[in-house]
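Encode chain A's predicted structure.
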Amino acid sequence: MIIKNKVNLTLVLVVFLTTLAGCSGKSAPDEFLVLKNAPLSLPPEFYLTPGGPDADLDEVVEPQDIAKRALFGSN
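Encoded structure for chain A:
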């Protein structure tokens, strides 16, 4: 019984060490070589409304109406 447990333990250790040795060759990315992105800025057309400044805003569809149409069908 003791010999069987030692054999099982040895096999488990051999498999574990083989797996560990197989993973040791992988190289991780270097965090110091990562390029920094430029800061975000607003586009020049950010304050424009859909359809231009003279657009009729009564025709704009609310997100709630879009969801109701998707769930319950067109009215």
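The radius of gyration is 32 Å.
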